[in-house]
Specification:
globular; alpha/beta; binds pyridoxal-5'-phosphate
């Protein structure tokens, strides 16, 4: 049994994938070929946004808007410690300071009440144990849609407006999810998504996209993606990066996008079966009314995590822990001075959480076996 079964997916779309790749080999435009614009138009339409700029990874999709907002030293960017390192790494890379905001224990996403407090603390220069530079200026927020469930954007966007901050939606895991009638990728000023192979919409390498309704931001991101280009690629008007998506990856994504809507529906069925079967044995994911998760992961909480994971492993069932160590306690961020117990919810959750196999092709018999193994423990 696979944790994410890409081979089964490929069985169903091999013909289209091969045709799409062959078309790229035939026309030979490997860099920014016609598939790139076609994909960008389709992704923008899918998410309901005006602009999509594809790029080389989900990490660059976070980096590019931060660069477009001129984030740098002296700026505070508020984000959650219960995420993949890329979310905060890009902030540090630009010389700005990631300021961690603890999560809601039910959704695992940024807790808006704690965000309010964290902004106030930075404005008051109140940072007792932290090694932050003095006089940090609150500049923006990166909210993460963890495991595919959107964060609470009504609350987060309202706080951002009050303090004149931008909001980036880290939709690396939530593309295909929804929040109050809007698609993930369209829930704040700008969104970043990832096409890492195991993501709900994944390519066969690295890839990502920036999504926004802001015309000028999209222009700047597009320029930054190609070394800060102006009128053409040898007219360089700002410092940028080489952050393009490969044409071949775009071709693969176009093939996968055709079945993506159905796959998201299948993920809902798999998740519903897990939740129904496991709700009396472990803490199953909470999806608030009006939200749809893209179910990048199906993660459960149990005091008996170790025993459960061992039993599942013995039964040949793969599991994974996202995330064993919250970012504020990672060595890479030790320079910020966060201490254990400073983010109690993230720390408690990371000790008790683990994820079960989740993909649209998980058959019912396998799923029954997974649930049966858990219920036996
Ligand atoms: C929440 C989150 N943000 C950002 C990223 C970075 O994406 P990529 O691996 O495509 O750079 C990931 C990928 O794992 C992620 O899960």
């Amino acid at each position: 049994m696979q944790f994410v079964d890409l081979a089964k997916q490929l069985e169903t779309i091999r013909g289209t994938v091969e045709e799409r790749i062959k078309a790229v080999l035939d026309h030979g435009n490997f860099i920014l070929g016609p598939e790139i614009k076609e994909l960008e138009n389709k992704l923008a339409a899918f998410a309901g946004v005006k602009h999509c700029v594809t790029c080389s990874s989900g990490t660059d999709a976070l980096l590019l808007p931060l660069m477009a907002y001129n984030v740098g030293p002296g700026h505070a960017i508020f984000t959650t410690p219960f995420t993949f390192i890329a979310t905060a790494e890009v902030v540090s890379l630009l010389g700005a300071t990631p300021v961690y905001v603890d999560i809601d224990p039910d959704t695992f996403n940024m807790d808006p009440a704690k965000l309010r407090q964290a902004i106030q603390d930075i404005k008051n220069n109140n940072k007792p144990t932290l090694q932050f530079p003095d006089g940090l200026i609150p500049k923006g927020i990166i909210a993460v849609d963890l495991f595919g469930l959107p964060a609470d954007y009504d609350a987060i966007n309202a706080i951002a407006r009050k303090h004149d901050l931008f909001v980036i939606e880290d939709a690396a895991q939530s593309f295909g999810g929804m929040y109050k009638g809007k698609m993930a990728g369209n829930l704040s000023d700008v969104a970043a998504t990832s096409f890492f192979p195991a993501k709900p919409l994944g390519c066969y390498g690295d890839g990502g996209a920036v999504l926004t309704n802001n015309d000028s931001l999209a222009d700047v991101v597009e320029s930054l993606r190609v070394h800060g280009k102006g009128q053409h690629k040898y007219d360089n008007i700002r410092i940028g990066i080489n952050g393009r998506l490969d044409t071949i990856q775009a071709a693969i994504l176009l093939a996968k996008l055709e079945i993506f809507g159905q796959e998201i529906e299948k993920r809902q069925e798999v998740a519903a079966r897990y939740s129904e079967g496991l709700k009396n044995a472990v803490k199953v994911p909470h999806v608030p009314p009006g939200y749809r998760s893209a179910w990048a992961q199906y993660s459960i909480i149990s005091e008996r995590k170790k025993g459960l994971m061992a039993r599942l492993q013995n039964a040949g069932i793969p599991t994974a822990v996202y995330y064993p160590q919250p970012l504020h306690l990672q060595t890479a961020f030790s320079y910020l001075g966060y201490k254990p117990e400073s983010m109690p919810v993230s720390e408690k959750v990371s000790g008790r959480i683990f994820s079960l196999p989740m993909h649209p092709y998980l058959d019912e018999a396998d799923q029954q076996r997974i649930m049966h193994t858990i219920l036996q423990v």
